[in-house]
Design a protein that fits this description.
It is an enzyme of class 1 (oxidoreductase). The protein is of the alpha/beta class. The protein contains 19 helices and 14 strands. Strand 5, helix 6 (127-138) and strand 6 form a beta-alpha-beta unit. It has 2 domains: 2-197, NAD(P)-binding Rossmann-like Domain (Rossmann fold, 3-Layer(aba) Sandwich), CATH 3.40.50; 217-436, Rossmann fold (3-Layer(aba) Sandwich), CATH 3.40.50. Bound molecules: uridine-5'-diphosphate-xylopyranose (UDX). Residues 152-156, 215, 218, 222, 256-258, 260, 262-265, 267-268, 329-330 line the site of uridine-5'-diphosphate-xylopyranose.
Length: 440
């Protein structure tokens, strides 16, 4: 089949490459000529394990191209995916839909044949119906333009795996205007459906809500364990053992019960806020009041970490040398959007600490966002003369650190484990002060 994908960020670039991997002819579209040039040359403009290989393989096979031209895109295919970003509005909780609107407003006037536009971006419930109406007014093909919604659940760091082997697929269709979206997507995703991956067809609103509800649930699960972690700290209990014990209950499950610095990134924080904003517009704001608490527990983790750092530095961060290991919002990513690690590093600097940050992949993005922090070239470089070492992103390289690796480098043997990824006993036995979040 032939399809286009609008937007070539984490979501769009991965979707385009993976659809080509399934054997389809794909044209990726982006308004940024720099991104298009990079992708066309087989380079991924961000860090995503395994994506470069899929990209190159399919470019070489002639199945995957990129362009900035909407005219070319409209001529290329009659199935168009929409994968542009929906960030948080400046100064408001709601989602900023300007990129989504801009794709529809530019593409629709070029649609002179029947076409299906399939949204993958995370949008407030009601957006798909509105975009459908908007597209049909603007398109010469008029009522022959269908808008469907196929939310994307991929995790950064596992984007290729999640796209080619999702745990489920959801397709929202316009129940008032039966079209060909379902038939076309069943054909497009045939190799996945052959693996018995559940494929749920719903109305548009349900599909939009599935995505935000899933992210709200994950955020709630993380904030739940972080709230329990606060109680653990107050009593001297150990939240990691507690989470293990909870996790054996199959109804609860151990995943997303890692207490620590909390969630960040380009999705969870802004999605729960946009969800609250939309519920408010719909007159259902009471229903999601608890998400405010989820958000607040999460943000409190960051200030708690700064307090803990001050505590282990003798009561004040003023003049303290602090090594921060990790800047990305999670391991296997170079994404620093709303990164708890980078936030904490910035806050400690405001409190007078000399902060030295190291991350295996996210240094360039961090420098752009926080140019005034010191960036180190290795773990040892960051930890030189440190009064405290803080692990704020659980990269495997940091989780594998042994006390002897750093003993001769630091000024004081103090380890603060913001992700509860180190063996507390091992560090204490080696004579270090070890502090974790929620670990007594
Ligand atoms: C998330 C959803 O998982 C994905 O389905 C959706 O499509 C996009 O948003 P992502 O943003 O890539 O994906 O990150 P995720 O792996 O969910 O982690 C989010 C944050 O939660 C990270 O900052 C991570 O460190 C944190 N986290 C995760 C915890 O603090 N504890 C956990 O137990 C799990």
């Amino acid at each position: 089949m032939r399809c286009t994908v609008f937007g070539t960020g984490y979501l769009g670039a991965t979707h385009a490459a993976c659809m080509a991997e399934l054997g389809h002819d794909v044209l990726g579209v982006d308004i940024d000529p720099g991104k298009v040039a990079k992708l066309s040359a087989g380079e991924v403009p961000f860090y995503e394990p395994g994506l470069a290989e899929v990209l190159r393989r399919n470019i070489e096979a002639g199945r995957l191209q990129f362009t900035t031209s909407y005219v070319e895109a409209a001529a290329f295919a009659d199935l168009h995916f929409l994968g542009v970003g929906t960030p948080q509005k400046k100064g408001e909780y709601g989602a900023d839909l300007r990129h989504v609107h801009s794709v529809i407003d530019t593409l629709a006037p070029l649609l002179d044949r029947p076409a299906v536009i399939v949204g993958k971006s995370t949008v407030p419930v009601g957006t798909a119906a509105e975009l459908g109406a908007r597209a049909r007014v603007l398109a010469p093909a008029g009522d022959a333009v269908e808008v469907a919604w196929n939310p994307e659940f991929l995790r950064e760091g596992f984007a290729v795996e999640d796209t080619l082997h999702p745990d489920r697929m959801v397709l929202g269709v316009d129940r008032d205007r039966p079209g060909s979206a379902e038939t076309q997507l069943r054909q497009l995703y045939a190799p996945l459906l052959a693996e018995d991956i559940p494929f749920l067809v719903t109305d548009l609103a349900t599909a939009e809500l599935v995505k935000v509800s899933a992210n709200a649930f994950l955020a709630t699960k993380i904030s739940f364990i972080n709230a329990i972690s606060e109680v653990c700290e107050a009593t001297g209990a150990d939240v990691t053992q507690l989470a293990d014990a909870l996790g054996y209950d199959a109804r609860i499950g151990r995943r997303f019960l890692n207490a620590g610095l909390g969630f960040g990134g380009g999705c969870l924080p802004k999605d729960i806020r946009a969800f609250m904003a939309r519920a408010g517009e719909l007159g259902a704001n009471q229903a999601l009041h608890f998400l405010r608490e989820v958000d607040s527990i999460n943000m409190r983790r960051r200030t708690r970490m700064v307090e803990l750092a001050a505590q282990v530095c003798g009561g004040s961060l003023l003049g303290a040398n602090v090594a921060v290991l990790g800047a990305a919002f999670k391991p296997e990513s170079d994404d620093v959007r709303d990164s708890p690690a980078l936030n904490v590093a910035g806050m400690m600097q405001l409190h007078g600490a000399v902060v030295s940050v190291y991350d295996p992949k996210a240094l360039d993005n961090s420098r752009r966002l926080f140019p005034t922090l010191n960036y180190a070239t290795s773990v040892a470089d960051a930890c030189e003369n440190a009064d405290a070492v803080l692990v704020l992103t659980e990269w495997a390289e940091f989780a594998a650190l042994k006390p002897d690796d750093l003993a001769g480098v630091v000024r004081a043997r103090v380890m603060v484990d913001g992700r509860n990824c180190l063996d507390a006993q091992q560090w204490r036995n080696a004579g270090w002060v070890y502090r974790g979040l929620g670990r007594g």
